[in-house]
């Protein structure tokens, strides 16, 4: 009996020792399925050939330019945008107009107009269409890039177009502080349907318009953007996505819209493609190598990376899918003191400790992530609410690198205050927007590399 108790206590103590990762939230979301809103929920706006699916993104490296994109369903014209400041005369910019075919689908006329030389920190109005079918929108340009410029980003991933997705968007839009959205990939989930029904790209763009027409969304490509379907002879990767969503990749010396960077306020944001080649000598590898050299922390103290497939994920869904990219680039991120990496892909929420796993060399056995003050925090927000449902099967015990995890839908807010501090929060859809289910003061790795209170103090 005594020996059994000793053995039991030993087992228990081992359990405590190995399972002292962070917090697995006790919040349990109702496990109802995620159902797409019907196609009819998002009809074209009224009026002949009315402009629709309006979205904007940053159009240059520093925020003085905006790409305005929209679709006209029937005719290519008018293909220009008028824009103005209140009380000032109107300017006009003409769009590049494209169409594409995907199996038996023909797109509307997709327009991309880049408007340039805007004033910083200024409200602009813009109008699309003409006559009775004119639609008006507005956006505010960011302040000039600088080291102590506050700025607030929303962060969304894996959104789709379910009723849960709708909650995520409504919450994000209701947040009065959000000024731009960092989107970490997997937009419409059109590929969930037979023949990758591209009508779902149209409904998705109409669905998110209430946000994307007014705030720039910074786009990252996920696996659902690949749209590869060799059985119907659709073999061009990212075809609908790249036709519909333009980004300012050439401004950051990139050769592909799938990886690029922007500067916005006090942040330098690097976007990577988990589904493009990144091995040594590839274009993405060489671009990232140079790009990290170009980051100037005296200008942009906050270094943020967006990529779709997470490197640190303790969910059985998509476990280790980001591993090969981590092996390629993690040491660079540590050397460059990346502050935070946002990912999606896993339909759940997770935040890591500051860890790295860069010592491993095949023979030395050093394969356990170690605390590292120069490492990023890795945040997975693949919890936008798409049709594939929640990833609610975490690995057990919770690994030490995992500070907080919860299988709920939601979004995050990154509220940069100055060069040293940013307040980060995660909001589950079931709560009202002011409630943060997870929060953290992030300390800048370059200017204030102190240890944060991550909520789990057992990492050694
Ligand atoms: Fe994904």
UniProtKB/TrEMBL annotation:
Keywords: Glycoprotein, Hydrolase, Iron, Metal-binding, Signal, Zinc. Gene3D superfamilies: 3.60.21.10, Purple acid phosphatase-like, N-terminal. Its EC number is 3.1.3.2. Residues 1-21 form the signal peptide. It is an enzyme of class 3 (hydrolase). Residues 152-349 form the Calcineurin-like phosphoesterase domain. This is Purple acid phosphatase.
């Amino acid at each position: 009996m005594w020996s059994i108790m000793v053995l039991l206590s030993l087992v228990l103590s081992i359990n405590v020792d190995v399972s002292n990762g962070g917090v697995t939230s006790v919040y349990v979301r109702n496990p109802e399925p995620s159902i797409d809103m019907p196609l009819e929920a998002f009809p074209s706006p009224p009026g002949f050939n009315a402009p629709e699916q309006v979205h904007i993104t940053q159009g240059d490296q520093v925020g003085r330019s905006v790409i305005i994109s929209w679709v006209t369903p029937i005719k290519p014209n008018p293909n220009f945008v008028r824009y103005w400041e209140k009380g000032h005369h109107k300017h006009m910019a003409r769009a590049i107009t494209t169409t594409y075919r995907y199996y038996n689908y023909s797109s509307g006329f997709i327009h991309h107009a880049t408007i340039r030389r805007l004033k910083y920190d200024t409200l602009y109005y813009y109008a699309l269409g003409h006559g009775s079918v004119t639609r008006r929108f507005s956006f505010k340009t960011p302040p000039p890039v600088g080291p102590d410029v506050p700025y607030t980003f929303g962060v969304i991933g894996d959104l789709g177009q379910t009723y849960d997705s709708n909650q995520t968007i409504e919450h994000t839009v209701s947040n009065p502080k959000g000024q731009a959205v960092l989107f970490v990939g997997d937009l419409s989930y059109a590929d969930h349907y037979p023949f990758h029904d591209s009508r779902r790209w149209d409904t998705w763009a109409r669905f998110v318009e209430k946000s994307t027409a007014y705030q720039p969304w910074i786009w990252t490509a996920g696996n659902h953007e690949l749209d590869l379907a060799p059985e119907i002879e659709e073999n061009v990767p990212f075809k609908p996505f790249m036709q519909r969503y333009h980004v300012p990749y050439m401004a950051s010396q990139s050769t592909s819209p799938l990886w690029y960077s922007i500067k916005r306020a006090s942040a330098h944001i690097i976007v990577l493609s988990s589904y493009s080649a990144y091995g040594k000598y590839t274009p993405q590898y060489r671009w990232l190598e140079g790009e990290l050299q170009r980051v100037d922390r005296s200008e942009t103290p906050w270094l943020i990376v967006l990529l779709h497939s997470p490197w640190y994920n303790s969910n059985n869904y998509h476990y280790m899918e980001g591993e090969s990219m981590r092996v390629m680039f993690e040491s660079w991120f540590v050397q460059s003191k990346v502050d935070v990496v946002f990912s999606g892909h896993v339909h759940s929420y997770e935040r890591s400790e500051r860890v790295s796993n860069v010592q491993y060399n095949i023979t030395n056995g050093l394969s356990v992530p170690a605390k590292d003050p120069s490492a990023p925090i890795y945040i997975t927000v693949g919890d936008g609410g798409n049709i594939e449902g929640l990833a609610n099967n975490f690995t057990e015990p919770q690994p030490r690198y995992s500070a907080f995890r919860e299988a709920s839908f939601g979004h995050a807010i990154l509220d940069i205050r100055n060069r040293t501090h940013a307040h980060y929060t995660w909001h589950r859809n079931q709560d009202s927007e002011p409630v943060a289910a997870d929060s953290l003061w992030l300390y800048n790795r370059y200017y204030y590399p102190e240890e944060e209170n991550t909520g789990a103090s057992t990492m050694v």
